[in-house]
Amino acid sequence: MDYPAAWLQGASLGEKIACELRLQIIRGHYAPGTVLSENQIAADFGTSRSPVREAMKVLSGEGLIRLERMGAVVIGMSPADMEELFDVRLLIEHFVVKRLVRKDTAPIAAALERLTDKMEVAFKHWDTAEFSLQDFLFHETLVLEAGHTRILHTWNGMRQLILTVMLAATEQRFSMKSTESVVTIAKHRTIATALMDRDEERLVSLVDDHYKDTRNAVNDSVLSPFRGSVLQD
Q1: CA pair distance 120, 103, nearest whole angstrom
Q2: Rounded to an integer, what distance in angstroms lies between the CA atom of residue 109 and that of residue 91?
Q3: Measured between alpha carbons, how far is 37 from 95 in angstroms, rounded to an integer?
Q4: Which of 38, 119, 126, 169 places its Cα 20 to 30 Å from the Cα of 72?
């Protein structure tokens, strides 16, 4: 499996299969229109069809596949789908940072700094999985600390999809020896500092700027194969 094993501790077999298939779909290894056979996937994973069905229900709920008899057809994520994912993330983070400035932000900002330090270490060791995870946890910390049940519920519904997109984008950036990750680290630090200062206006501006850069990075990496296939069609 290519999906990081450390991220799968405690996961059911169906969840593990879903994580691997999700990653391959986001990477573009399973192109839109590809037929996924329950029997073939079960054979690949050395299991019965029951965990495969569990995985396919999850991916269908995320809009990545369309269920068919004895299998599924890959839908994937188009540029419009990815844009909508970023739209929702941006709405959530705008809301949570405005909520967080009313709290004692010192411990939250300190936690964000620690996560950013881990991102920096991961970058130095060229560890894509660890960099992606710490980047993801930075943003998840903002959501968790906001203490809003419905926002958290919405976030959890997209959690695995967001994490997988971040992993695929980081893999692409690292493979191209891109220095964009250095900029990402610096921007995370500025967000932590603005939170410490309870500067709501600056926080919102920084979140906007960060998501603009992230959208561009995903468009240039994860979505480039999709765009190429569309042009060829």
Answers
A1: 27
A2: 20
A3: 41
A4: 169
